[in-house]
Amino acid sequence: MKLIVIGLILANVIMSIKGFKDVVFFNKYKFNISSVQKGEKIRMFSSGFLHADYIHLGFNMYVLYMFSNVVLSYFSPLLYLGIYALSLFIGNYLSLLLNKSNLYYSAVGASGAVTGIVYSSIVLFPDMPLSIFPLPISFPAYIFGIGYLFYSMYGMKNQSGNVGHSAHIGGAIAGYLATIVLIPSVLITQTLPVVLLAIPIVVLVLMQKKNFSR
């Protein structure tokens, strides 16, 4: 495991534990619509290093650990970090766009950034097998990716659970597009999976056209 991944995991663990113990610190750096609109842009990034609890933190770091080597097999640590940071920002930016009228909307977690790394790995290796616990079967990664995006869109629309679905979607889009821009040859070598992964993204844009134009 590259040092960049270890560094990100440590940063998340340190800041999250600080947030668990210090409510003032947590509230100062979490993502909050009202605060961001007032100019506290640091929350667009700082919120990605805070988590709601140890389970939330542990799950995100486990997924990051599992998928990072796939991305690092193609990209330098600097480009990997760029995809991570871009996915974090776009995830929160989409949340800002879709919830801008809800001034009390708040969120924390590295999910947007982690989802960006996951989708980058899916674009690079769309046929790698992924399974969903507790199902005893696996799916090609691109099938999982398409299904997860549609699930997130459903969750976002219905506000199901205490989950930042919009951040997941934004992070996935960022990881997907960044990988294609950096390695455009995937459009030739992985044409069908890459095109199919774009379907839920196009559907989302069409569904949210009014939100984006306001």
Describe the fold and architecture.
This protein has 214 residues and is mainly α. It has one domain (3-213): Rhomboid-like fold (Up-down Bundle). 71% of the residues lie in helices and 5% in strands. The chain is built from 12 helices and 4 strands, in the order H-H-E-H-H-H-H-E-H-E-E-H-H-H-H-H. A two-stranded antiparallel ribbon has the order 1-2. A two-stranded antiparallel ribbon has the order 3-4. Helix 1 (3-21) packs antiparallel against helix 5 (54-72) and helix 6 (77-98) crosses helix 9. The longest helix is centred in the middle third of the chain and has 22 residues, at 77-98. The chain starts with a helix and ends with a helix. It is a multi-pass membrane protein. One of its GO terms (cellular component) is membrane. Keywords: Hydrolase, Membrane, Protease, Transmembrane, Transmembrane helix. The chain crosses the membrane at residues 71-91, 103-125, 131-151, 163-182, 188-207. This is Rhomboid family intramembrane serine protease.
